[in-house]
Amino acid sequence: MKKSTLKTALIALFLLCSGAQLKAQNSIRLDNSEIEKVRIYQNGAFVSRTVKTTLNPGLNEVVFDGLSPYINPNSVTVKGMGDATIIGVNFQQNYLKDQKKSPEINKLETERDSFNIKLRYIQNKIASTNEGIAVLQANKSIGGNNNGVVANDLIAIVDYYVKKINALKDDLIELGLKEQKTQEQINKINQQLSVLNNKQNQPEGNIVVTVDAKTKSSATFDFSYLINSNVSWTPIYDVRVKNINNPIEFILKAKVYQSTGEDWTNTNLTLNTGNPTDGAQKPILYPWYLNFQIYKLDGKTNKRMEAAPSMMARDRDDKESTAGATMMWENTQMMENQLSNEYIIQNKYTLKSGNLETQIEINRTNANAYYEYACAPKLNTDAFLMGHIPNWENLNLLDAEGTVYFDGAYVGVCTIQNTTVNDTMHISLGKDERIAVKRTKVNEVNGSSLLGSNKEKKCLYDITVKNTKKEAVTVIVEEQLPISQDKDITVNALELSGGDLNTTTGLVTWKISLQPGESVTKKFNFSVKYPKDKIVNGI
């Protein structure tokens, strides 16, 4: 009876263990999840995917394959729909999965094989040519040691030998050049393959979801995750002006870079100016201690109380604000949140993982502006067209670099800073050679004179501005008076022709309106008085 009971218990235990083992063997690997949307931050990206599968009764280990290895494990969220229960979610990096070669690698390897075959042919010809030269050089003896040679035969033999040797050596030079060029092509292909293979050999990310299913049933999984690195976007502007009678157009673009190990094909994109990796908690100010520095007489290092420790901040969570006003653009919907701007791109884009940048146009904004020419003839006699945008803060521009175009021609670059406190934004639109500026030193008047114990130096200049354009213009001319930093040095403005003087900076400004063909001359005269036994730097 006891043996029968023990046998029954062993069988039951065996069946239980076998059942548990069979239950744990339900492994499902899915590499066909579809991307619903990607939110790209200025450093990082939040990816949302969905996938469908069929679950077996019992425990199922569902593995989402082909993901980025740069996923933040703490950011992974999985939502399942079906007759099952999610027991656990885990992220891991898979170094063991065989990776298929990309079409680009296959193409480059085929080209390299072709060049290698070509190189072998060239090297064979070089070897054959060298052997031909060696044969000719080994048979220089003509007629043997005891037999003479007829003069005409000798001339013909020497002529043949010289021509043949020269031809073979010329062939060697040509073959050597071909060998060098072919080897250079092979080296370039190998360098590119090295870059691609390094990227190809990166591990892939896997999200492993443990699911307990009561019956065999269909299930849908929506999952999302944050990629911490290897993806970013940078705002840039095209700043375009058709002419001085039109507004300034700001074309906001995004330079998007992603090398996450994932290809985002025909994907809904959102660009966000925030950074999910920044700390979201207010930093804490610790006590800031001050004390006298204590000097030691024994030569040891001086000791002093250290300042407060560096500020500490916790990592921000991955929750995102959705409150804000919505503005519609032609190609973009902009969400202005309390902490960041978000641009929903209306068209779908394909972003392959790699080292190339993709430019995406976000929106276009017209800004009312007025235009003036400006010059500083002391430094440069060119007149630069300036666009001035009042109340520019209403444009909601981003901090970015801008490429400036005037009348369709490239002008240069500018920097747009939305943190400036000025009410008006100033953008240089390039120089205009039709505004002629000349700064002339009046030599017969300039000079120094002695006044008792002091010396006085006079500096007199004529500044002439001429408008050769067909329309009236306004020109801002800037000069500067030197500023004394010593009570014994006195600077006096003798003649400024109505220019406005900033006594703090020494800046002198004229606002000159010129009709077509009109020319105006302004006088800029000043003197510097100082003790005659001293030398003043800067004049």
Give the structure's gist in a few sentences.
By secondary structure, the protein is an alpha+beta fold. The protein is built from 3 helices and 30 strands. The N and C termini lie far apart (121 Å).
Which terms would index this structure?
alpha+beta, 8-stranded mixed β-sheet, 43% strand, flat
Give your account of this protein's structure:
With 539 residues, this protein is an alpha+beta fold. It contains three helices and 30 strands. The strands form six sheets. Strands 5-8-3-2-12-15-14-13 form an eight-stranded mixed β-sheet, with no helix packed on it. Helix 2 (103-138) packs antiparallel against helix 3 (151-200). Residues 9-24 and 297-330 have low confidence and may be disordered.
**What's the number of extended β-strand segments?**
30
- What is the 3D form? flat
What's the arrangement of strands in the largest beta sheet?
Answer: 5-8-3-2-12-15-14-13
Main beta-sheet annotation: 8 strands, mixed
User: Roughly what fraction of the amino acids lie in strands?
Assistant: 35-45%
Low-confidence stretches: 9-24, 297-330
Our measurement of the CA-to-CA distance between the termini, rounded to an integer number of angstroms, reads 121 Å
Kindly report the average pLDDT value.
81
SSE class: alpha+beta
The tally of helices reads: 3
State the share of residues found in helices, binned by percent: 10-25%
Q: What is the C-alpha radius of gyration, as a whole number of Å?
A: 40 Å
Topology record:
Layout: H1 2-24, E1 26-30, E2 34-41, E3 44-55, E4 58-67, E5 77-81, E6 84-94, H2 103-138, H3 151-200, E7 204-213, E8 217-227, E9 231-241, E10 248-258, E11 264-267, E12 269-272, E13 325-328, E14 332-336, E15 341-345, E16 349-351, E17 357-367, E18 370-376, E19 380-390, E20 400-406, E21 409-416, E22 424-431, E23 435-441, E24 447-451, E25 454-467, E26 473-480, E27 490-495, E28 500-501, E29 507-514, E30 519-531
Parallel strand pairs: 1-4, 2-12, 9-20, 18-26
Antiparallel strand pairs: 2-3, 3-8, 4-7, 5-8, 6-7, 9-10, 10-17, 11-16, 12-15, 13-14, 14-15, 18-19, 19-22, 20-21, 23-25, 24-25, 25-30, 26-29, 27-30, 28-29
Helix pairs in contact: 2-3
